[in-house]
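My main concern about presentation is that the manuscript never shows what a single data entry looks like. Each protein is reduced to its one-letter sequence and a matching series of backbone shape codes. For the editor and my fellow referees, an illustration may be useful. For illustration, here is how one protein appears when written out as sequence plus structure tokens:
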Amino acid sequence: MNTSIELIKKEIEYLKRELDRHNVLYYEFANPAISDYEYDMLVNRLKELKALYPDLTEQELPIQKVGNDLTPNAKTIQHKQRMYSLENAYSLDEVKEFLCKIEQETGSFPTVTLEHKIDGFSINLYYEQGKLIYATTRGDGFAGEVVTENVKTIQSIPLSIQSNESIEIRGEIYYPVEVFLNLNKEREEKGEKLFANPRNAAAGTIKLKDSKLVAERKLQATFYSIGYTSEQISFSQSELLKWLEQQGFPTSKDYQKANCFEEVESYCKEWDARRSTLPYEIDGIVIKIDDFALQQRLGYTNKSPKWAIAYKFKPEEKETVLLDVQFQVGRTGAVTPVAVLEPVYISGSTVSRATLHNEDEILRLDLHQGDTVHLVKSGEIIPKIKAVNLAKRPDNSKPIEFTKVCPICHSSLFKEPDGVIHYCSNSNCPAQLQRQLEHFTSRDAMDITGLGESLIARLIEEGMLQTVEDIFRLDYAKIVKLDRLGEKSSENLKQAVYAAKNQKFDRVLYALGIRFVGTKTARILVEHFSNIDNLMQAEIEILTSVPEIGEKIAQSVFDYFRIPENKALIEYLRQTGLQLASDASDKVTVLQGRTFLITGTLENYDRKAMEELILNNGGKLLSSVSSNLNYLIVGEKAGSKLDKAKRLGTVNIISEAEILKMMGI
């Protein structure tokens, strides 16, 4: 085989590997590494090679597969009618070609519906006798992952409809832009990883095990099609949209019918220009044949319907100049570089700053002072520097260097082994104080209503807040005299601070802001150690023996309580009257004195969630089968632990349903 053919073969293999990798990142982990546009460019290249070199390509390629969002070992249900993916077009010429082909086949230009393509997560609802029976994700197109309880928390989705048909209703679950931005802001304040875009956030949220958390996240939905139906309910897409609206389903209010390509083109251009004005993200326009009989006649490919296409908007990209790189300090002391840009209008807003995440990102981009950079919005929302225009780099420009000291207190920085984030070494750094106070007073921590970001900043400026301890010794007589506050605001704040003294120990522990200790970890530590003194005295070996407490968390907790200033804070909070021990009367002890171990995959709970339930109900967990084990909880594909328990003869072998019954769930 000649050299050129060898190169083509290598390129095909590379494209296949890349597409398989990106499919897994996108569908299974909701964490794409590239944009939809970049992904589709890989697909198009592979299509070109497949057409040119059919002998070099296999029967089935990643371009012919429907994406798979199934979580391993998750409960699934077969769709009654397959869910397909849409073919994408990145130019109006491609759309025109698609419609002209149908016109040639049918003898006339087809009437089409034009609908917003909301960038969300596909969902399938099944109703019988007017009642919602279950909800599933698209999955692999043939079967979907069960997410019924989470879907029921979305208030806009009707749990019952005025129809006795057996019917699959299909649509999209999504985050409104404002809700998404607030969610990322909360995650940033907690030191959690940010979602890349609304679609990823929706995909991650709908699969959470905790339905209460799903409800708090304020997902929305829109519906636009049906799958299986026991009786035909409409004869066209436009009629179906009206029927869905009559049944109480949220639908697009901006859809339109078109009878010629000029109308299609006008609608696509209009909403490409107006998309930033919408309260939700759209990444294109879906063009469908309106007549269901014609849809049936045109049929499907292995992957997509032949009667619909998605016109995808190209991500807007602008050039601007890097003016400076500034460094911000967060609550945990994390130092984050931020690009200061010459203001540029992109995707609906003027952008003058963009996060650079860490030193590695600066090195990857090879940023220099005064560089002209290509700016995009990740998911059309979060500003991101994509690349540098090297042709416009100023002569003798110097590389951007990561700061060697804290930009606020000038203390030295440190990185954890194998870590990428730099931290300020000074726990009393003024920049950390604002974030620490915001965290301490936040809803999941001490929940001090009224003491928010702006008032904290003002009280710091007035010299009334210099430490966490100062929250409990505020001078309300002085607060009354501050502009725009007055007696009522001062009294409400006083009552909120007083009420915080009744918050439970796990919330106080979380409020301390120990790195890697979130709300769940705080509950686990409180359950195991009961009071602050036991926790403060625990060595690393003891901490790591607690289920779900790994070496990183254990080291962080251990180090926190070795700092004199932190010990002094704990003593002050004790004297102030905060709860630094768990209340025995609050503990659920139905499993007290009994030991448990899980083997196999449970139907309704993942292993960590079940272990947390057992701990919260007073039970203890073992790591192996022994004479000390009371109960072995067995799921599907149980391993050698089951055989060992049977041989031992003293272990009670129970199912998931039985342990839930023991806990009264």
